[in-house]
Structure formats: C-alpha cells, structure tokens
Amino acid sequence: MINVTKTFLPDKEEYIKYVHEIWDRGYITNNGPVLQQLEQELKDYLNVDHLYFCGNGTIVLQIAIKALELKGEIITTPFSYCATSNAILWENCTPVFVDIDAQTFNIDPTLIEASITPATSAILATHVYGNPCDIEAIEVVAEKHNLKVIYDAAHAFGVTYKGKSLLSYGDISTCSFHATKVFHTIEGGALISNHPELDKKLHLLRAFGHQGDDLYLYAGINGKNSEFHAAMGLVNLPQVPNIIQARKEVFEAYDSLLNWDVLSKPLISSDIEYNYAYYPVVFPSEEMMFRVMDALREQEIIPRRYFFPSLNTLSFMPRQFACPVSEDIALRVLSLPLYVGLPYSDIERISGIINGHLSP
C-alpha cells in the first residue's frame, strides 16, 4: 500500500541513545533538559528569539489566541485543516471566513477589509501547503485596523520567505510537528513570537500559568511536551535538509510526469525556499477527481482530499459565509503520495493511473 504520506524515522540507535539518557535521569517531562536543548536548536535553526515546544499543533493555536487576549471575531481562511477554525471556536471566538485566492489557495487579502467589524480582533491565516500568504498585504490591513495576526504555519517548517524563516512573521506563528510533517517530534507543535513581552506569558500559558510551586499568574493549560518527543526532534532536526531534498525530487518527478493540459496546482511564491510539504493537484471536476481517486485506491494507492470540506460549510459553524472559490477547489483537489523514499517507479505508476483517467 502507498499512503499519502509516510513518517520519516531517523537512525534508531541515535534515538535510543537519548532514551537511555532520559531513563537514567528519570526526568521525562516538565521542561526537561532535552526539551530545552531542542528549543534552543530550533531557535538557532530558524533564527528566531522566542520559541516554545508544545504538545501538538492545535493547542499552540489555542494558546496563541489566549496569549493575545483575542475576543469576538477572528477573520480566517476556509481552506485549511479544521484545527484552524476549531481553535477559534474553542477559545469562544467567532470565525469569520474570507475566501481564498484562486491561484495560491491562501486567504485573499483583498477581501479581508470588507469583513472587518468593530468586533474583529485578529486575522488567523494559514500558509497553505507551506506556501506563504501575502504577508505584506495582510500586515497593511492589520496595522490599519489595529488587528493581531496569527499565522497557522503547520505546513511551513523549513520554508524561508525573503531570506527569513516563514515562521518568523506575524505576532505569533504556530507550527505542527506531527509525525506526518516535514519535521516531526511524533506529536508536537511550537509557538514562535516576535514580541519579547509575550515571551514569559507564552511560557506560563503552556504550563498551567504558574511559576514555581505557588505563584499563579494566568489561567494556563497543559500544553507541555515530553523528553521523549523532544529527543525525536533532536535526532530529526539535522536531517531536515536531506528530507526536503528528497521530497523535492518526488515533487519534480510528478511535475514532469503529470498531464498539465488537464490538471492544475497552486502557484508557489517565487520569493521562497520551499519545503515540498504536499503535492496537491486540482481536477477540472469533482467527478473526475472521484474517478481518479477510485482508480488509485483500486491499486492500493491512498491519496487524500486535502483540504475538504471547505471549513465555512461545516454544520457547527455559528455563522454562515459564502466562499465560492474555496468551496469549488475543495471539491476538486487531491493530495498525492509524497514522502522520503517513495520510489520513482511508484511515482510513474501513480502518474500513469492519473493521466489515464483524465478524459472527459
């Protein structure tokens, strides 16, 4: 079976070495030395000053909303994983969906201003598939209306934009280190902030809001992660350049083999060094997408409808918004298998099946 992704596993002995050290210390969580080492190495790798390693990529969104003390409405994208909008709901805010750009699949900054009301407190935008949002345009709108900006950068580890880590933009960026990501810690996530005044607050909010044994400062939450997860990150981090290169080779193979007279894909910014996080293709119709998906699955090849459905259509959203571009693309997009070690022969086979089912 060929799944849409496959977890990268580093050298087992390197990881076990850390496990032995953790075992001998008997210190397995609560901001231990391995976790602190990972945070420092991540800050060095990304060239950022303030980073906190947390339990997963969803809780960091919740902590970001809490740290910025957001209320009321948060403008966001309908074309993302449900964690983005669910975090807004969990923090008792209202997601206001703004449609996406038809070329990049990121939130369309030209539509944001029309959705701002007196209740709007922030913009929460996703760098879809690791492709940067229009950061400059979003910043102009945010500054004009005194709004905070959070970037859901779950897909964006290893991406640089204009020479800087994509994670270094916005008031806070969040990242996912789930096992399916380019860089992973089995489960995990990170908060990255450009504001020194948020540093202590983020540290406390992820650890129940208290300092020492008896000084309680915030209504925090348990967003911590363990020494074992941090150890996986330390072993994986040096492999990131090799991982990205291997994914790039798969990406370029699809580029050369698929029939672009029929298919399309999002436009990747020219100002980045990309991480090749996903390989989405868009079909002319949902019917053709299903036909291809069924043909692949008959051969035990499992792509993913990523992202589907458009989040503005979810039944539990408190308000309804029309996002025709997102709704249309969500019906026709399919992410193809992409991971380190996917053989070229399998990429050829996948591409051949797809191309063979593109007739009207």
TrEMBL record:
CDD domains: AHBA_syn
Top EC category: transferase
Segments crossing the lipid bilayer: none
InterPro entries: DegT/StrS_aminotransferase, PyrdxlP-dep_Trfase, PyrdxlP-dep_Trfase_major
GO molecular function, one term: dTDP-4-amino-4,6-dideoxy-D-glucose transaminase activity
Enzyme Commission designation: 2.6.1.33
Keyword list, A-Z: Aminotransferase, Pyridoxal phosphate, Transferase
Annotated PANTHER family: PROTEIN RV3402C (PTHR30244:SF9), TRANSAMINASE (PTHR30244)
Family, per entry: Belongs to the DegT/DnrJ/EryC1 family.
Designated name of the protein: dTDP-4-amino-4,6-dideoxy-D-glucose transaminase
Protein species of origin: Dyadobacter linearis
